Amino acid sequence: MPVAGLGTRFLPATKAIPKEMLPIVDKPLIQYAVEECLASGIDHIIFVTGRGKGAIEDHFDLAPELDSLLVQRGKTDQAKMARELHGGAHFSFTRQREALGLGHAVLCAANIVGDEPFAVLLPDVIMDGAPQAATRSLVDVYEATGAGAIDVEEVPREKVHMYGIVDAKPVKNARFGDRLLQVKDLVEKPTAEKAPSNFAVSGRYVLPPETFEHLLKTKPGAGGEIQLTDALRQLAHADKMMAYVYEGKTYDAGDKLGFLQANVELGLKNPNLGKAFREYLRGLKL
Q1: How far apart, in whole angstroms, are the C-alpha atoms of residue 112 and residue 46?
Q2: Number of domains observed in the structure of the chain
Q3: 2 located within any domain
Q4: What is the mean pLDDT of residues 253-280?
Q5: pLDDT score of 207 more than 80
């Protein structure tokens, strides 16, 4: 999980608090991604961090003083919840010393990952509502095909210029139905006229270890950044990249409007708050 960004779109809130620790309803943003990993069978999570991100490590660590205080006050359920935030996962932390792009952030984890397939989750994207966790579907595709896999979703033609778009064709597969695509290429933010499709990359990847080799050979682009898309294109050109059309709802919580939408819609789904929150919204006079 790349979490080294400065979160400048959320200033001044992120001046002293990592963007990933901003709350969506009652949990920090980063926790949704960790829970998705656990639901996908992934229990070793690597955070690629930067300066000022210590709160993320603290959040998933034990807090003996808090635990003791909650127990003393009879709040045993809250104590248990705080104690088990990690969900049994093992965490590793490595530092991205310079902001040199998503590809560089992924490359920073190479020594920890080793010669294994790995997932990349952009934690400011919340993927909710599918029959199973978004990353789990990609793990299934990888295990079935041996190729890298990315989640995509359909976007309106007039918005393709905002996304990475795949050039892909349907693959007949009884297990995945019409949701599996063979990726031939990826185009970053094309115009509507030049877009090869309206399937946009949505922030979840399961990739083979050879991805690191492609990243090492990738030349820095604008701003000296190494882009993950360049490595994905190399996999696609070698017929080693699949796309899975995501079935659920995606929230871009790295954007202020998307952040607000995630809070409202997930708040309405919350079993403890949803009913009262819905009544409150109905009573608003705007």
Answers
A1: 8
A2: 1
A3: no
A4: 95
A5: yes
Integer CA distances (angstroms), 133 to 42, 247, 257, in order: 11, 10, 24
Mean pLDDT, rounded, for 32-52: 94
As a residue count, the chain comes to 286
Residue 180, pLDDT > 90, answer yes
Contacts of 39 (CB under 8 A, 6+ apart): 132, 133, 135, 136
* 3-class secondary-structure state, position 197: coil
- Closest CA relative to residue 42, chosen from 211, 244, 207: 207
pLDDT tens digit sequence for 110-158: 999 999 999 999 999 999 977 789 999 999 999 999 999 999 999 999 9
Tell me the H-state helices in 84-208.
102-107, 110-113, 134-145
Side-chain-side CA neighbours of residue 201 (13 Å): 29
Which of these, 164, 191, 169, lies nearest to 180 by C-alpha position?
A: 169
Query: Which residues constitute the domain of residue 105?
Result: 8-269+276-282
Q: What is the C-alpha separation between 39 and 181, in angstroms, rounded?
A: 24
pTM across the whole model: 0.91
